[in-house]
Amino acid sequence: MSEPLRLGIAGLGTVGVGVVRIIRQQAALLEARTGRKITISAVSARSKDKDRGVPLSDYGWEDDPVALAKRDDVDVFVELMGGDDGPAKDATEAAIAAGKDVVTANKAMLAIHGQALAEAAEAAGRVIRYEAAVAGGIPVMKALTEGLAGNDISRVMGVMNGTCNYILTQMQATRQGYNALFAEADKLGYLEADPNLDVGGIDAGHKLALLASVAFGTQVNFDGVELEGIQKITLEDIDAADDMGYRIKLLGVAQMTGRGLEQRMSPCLVPSTSPLGQLEGGTNMVVIEGDAVGQIVLRGAGAGEGPTASAVMSDVIDIARGLRLPTFGQPATTLTTARAALAAVPAPYYLRMQLVDKPGALAKVAAVLGDAGVSIDRMRQYGHQDTAAPVLIVTHKTTRTALDEALAGMDKSVVQGEPVAIRIEEVD
Amino acid sequence: MSEPLRLGIAGLGTVGVGVVRIIRQQAALLEARTGRKITISAVSARSKDKDRGVPLSDYGWEDDPVALAKRDDVDVFVELMGGDDGPAKDATEAAIAAGKDVVTANKAMLAIHGQALAEAAEAAGRVIRYEAAVAGGIPVMKALTEGLAGNDISRVMGVMNGTCNYILTQMQATRQGYNALFAEADKLGYLEADPNLDVGGIDAGHKLALLASVAFGTQVNFDGVELEGIQKITLEDIDAADDMGYRIKLLGVAQMTGRGLEQRMSPCLVPSTSPLGQLEGGTNMVVIEGDAVGQIVLRGAGAGEGPTASAVMSDVIDIARGLRLPTFGQPATTLTTARAALAAVPAPYYLRMQLVDKPGALAKVAAVLGDAGVSIDRMRQYGHQDTAAPVLIVTHKTTRTALDEALAGMDKSVVQGEPVAIRIEEVD
């Protein structure tokens, strides 16, 4: 029997409480699986006296997470405070400097400071683990870093913000518009304090940047993620997509192209019959494509006490078992810096525009698209509303550049307002 | 840079060739990810001179896999011959005795001899890895053993025989009966030499026994798997199930009950809208339910050169990286022996029987069911055929014992032939 593995847990919100609960309730199971006891030496949070539903009096208390990170009786610093900077980063750095391993659920911190933190940890012979930072309970970092490590990864995709998927699937199910569902999600407590983290795609973009780093052996580069939120998606788009056999998802896509690393987090159309298309509600899904394995799909809860604590515990258990890997799967100093390629891979697009009801209007639109080299695969014109009629177009594969050129050149006398363009991601 | 990791590969069928191909083509990637070279010292197969599409002249050759397993220049013995006994087992034992780690894709050998092999390996300080043995390219052993190790697992389910799922989904898609699709699968080369391994559920049963061992910390017990094949499933069953919102799958289910470990590999109805219900064709799916994480679904190719080689390589890479765990996640000597519980958990059932067309017939069936304590949830009677009409019944939850008692007590003057009973597995 080895020595106990002693944790210091900073942050006692939903996830921290979940971790405490698993360690208390599953002590025997954890000991059977790791061959040692997993104990909590001390915890830290904003308020000491708050009743969190789990007994904390057995553990030491630190007001300052940095002090917790440095304690002699802590082997692993478990950072569950959140925030890309400030106390979370200070305490993580302090833990590494003090020779502790780190387990964190902090996607923002790692998406922005991951390279520097990984280099510091590896120089100190310590590990940073973050299964809980990406897609909640789904063991996707482990699948990608270890389970599929024999593959040259061609593409990683994911629906990794449950709130956005909830809003989009509820729009279709309840026939309500984006604003009504946004308000409902807010009322249900599904939104971050800054809702743009959710509906703007930032939170999911952080996760995508972490996946891309491991998949392609590149330094994590959140600034290279092309971000677009779901705020402009209308019920009309959802219905039109459905009509043509698609669903609209806030989809993250990372792929290495001849022109650099493409990372996108944006609304996309995916086939209704694909696993991504069939994903309803708040559940997360990650799709990994490798040259040998083909397509692997992983699905599960992306948030919540139990799922996220499960992911934190898998990292803790790995450390308890002596399973140690560099933060991004290979030494941080060997990660390359890839050029960011914006929408480099051609794709079909869905277009929606309001066409003025006059002769030759459609011909003009078709001509502008044709001049930019964008060819039309399918087109639908719906019933008139006042003086303009919605027209939906699915293009053949085209580059975003060509498409943007065409849209910029649309004749304002025939097209009312701004055309909407949504990429169609080709996936089985 | 560490020393190279040197493999000896026994078996050069589809999977063996796939492994050789990855090692040759992805040498740089593998070295970047593991920090060392992965090399092949020697190989072994039945015929030395066969052209397998990959160059083998760089490697030593052994006619005898046991000799390969013992070679001084082999660190890891990669067993890809198959067969639960004979050369595969002899060579695996020889490898362990000679102090080698073992990677295998051999589900039959481990489902039957896994406990003894694991104990021998652990006594010798060696590991046995077998990601490729279960659900092909899906990294499910890793997900269960490591990624979800913080969970008390309540149930593991899987569609893990692509041939059966192909036959079942093609029956529905093409309106052909079981025999026609079986013949087609045979012609396409989808069937094992002994087709009962596929359609009888044996192959998938081996996989289930391995999953159950890790999930519940029990000694692998293939004899405790209740097996039922898909041979009796008719197009009529598939249509009736569809009509009531279900799909029929050859589904493996393992769960720990108050009466022991229940392991079943049998046709089941699952909701059409569930991920399992939506699984078409030869793809595999494993569903894991844990107390903290909830439901995790993993989906991917269950067979084929690339996917299976990908899984073998993940084990090789783990060994190259120094990630070492006991065969079943915890020391083999600590695994418990669970009593086998046959269909201990009550479930609703789908029943199909031919009812003779005379007054009171249905009332008699209902009375027999009621006497055995089996209550009816839904019932459908279809158009007459000759003197008898098919009747479909969905029961409320009942035990298999009560149901069997009811079916045995059916009045032969009103029910023609043998009633068909298929369990409805409750899953989201």
Short description:
The structure is a homodimer of 428-residue chains. Chain A has 428 residues and is an alpha/beta fold. Chain A is 35% helix and 25% strand.
What does this structure look like?
The structure is a homodimer of 428-residue chains. Chain A is elongated and about 80 Å long. In chain A, strands 7, 8, 9, 10, 11, 12, 13, 14, 15 and 16 form a ten-stranded mixed beta sheet that branches. Chain A contains 14 helices and 16 strands. Chain A folds into three domains: 5-104, Rossmann fold (3-Layer(aba) Sandwich); 140-301, Dihydrodipicolinate Reductase, domain 2 (2-Layer Sandwich), CATH 3.30.360.10; 349-424, Alpha-Beta Plaits, CATH 3.30.70.260. The mean pLDDT of chain A is 95. Chain A is an alpha/beta fold and 428 residues long. The longest helix of chain A has 17 residues, at 107-123. Chain A has helices at 14-25, 27-34, 65-70, 87-97, 107-123, 140-147, 162-174, 178-187, 196-199, 202-216, 235-243, 305-320, 361-371, 400-408; strands spanning 5-10, 38-44, 60-62, 76-79, 101-104, 128-129, 153-159, 225-227, 246-257, 260-271, 283-290, 294-301, 349-356, 376-381, 388-395, 415-424. At the A-B interface, helix 2, helix 6, strand 12 and helix 12 of A face helix 2, helix 6, strand 12 and helix 12 of B.
Please outline the helices and strands.
Two copies of one chain form a homodimer.
Chain A: E1 5-10, H1 14-25, H2 27-34, E2 38-44, E3 60-62, H3 65-70, E4 76-79, H4 87-97, E5 101-104, H5 107-123, E6 128-129, H6 140-147, E7 153-159, H7 162-174, H8 178-187, H9 196-199, H10 202-216, E8 225-227, H11 235-243, E9 246-257, E10 260-271, E11 283-290, E12 294-301, H12 305-320, E13 349-356, H13 361-371, E14 376-381, E15 388-395, H14 400-408, E16 415-424
Parallel strand pairs in A: 1-2, 1-4, 2-3, 4-5, 5-6, 8-10, 10-16
Antiparallel strand pairs in A: 7-9, 7-11, 9-10, 11-12, 13-15, 13-16, 14-15
